Description:
GO molecular function: electron transfer activity; heme binding; iron ion binding
Shape: globular
Keywords: Signal
Structural class: mainly alpha
Protein name: Cytochrome C
Signal peptide: 1-22
Bound molecules: heme C
Amino acid sequence: MSALIPLGVLCFAIGLARAADAALDMDLMQNVEDANKSLASNIALRDAGASAKDAEELHTLFQTVEKHYLAKPEAPDGLALSRKSLQLTEKIQQQVGAQDFGGASGSATELSRTCRACHTFYKQS
Ligand code: HEC
């Protein structure tokens, strides 16, 4: 029985190492996709609270994306585009906070362009 415990710990450790290695996984980008869609519709609905929440969630997700590219000096455009996304999601939070939905909509369009720019560089499929 006792031999099973170290084995379990080992499997857990390997699982963690894998998770850290595959930081930019499909789940992360799927969450980015969902939050980005929700943000666009909440800006259109002029719902400041929900828009700010989506922008904040995107900001947190892009912090993970930034970390991924910080560890990849061979992909400087990914780092620059992660940082641009961080700036835009912060700006959107300020804009909806000030009820500037026109400005927020412009920033959201710019954010979507940033998504596409990064995918052109790095998305495999
Ligand atoms: C800094 C780079 C970068 C930015 C910015 C970025 N992505 Fe991605 N995205 C990727 C990469 C790389 C992949 C491919 C991941 C892989 O193949 O492991 C991807 C994949 C995806 C996928 C496919 C996931 C799947 O299940 O097939 C979606 C959807 C997606 N991104 C949405 C977005 C949206 C929406 C934004 C903007 C709000 C965005 N991404 C911004 C790098 C980025």
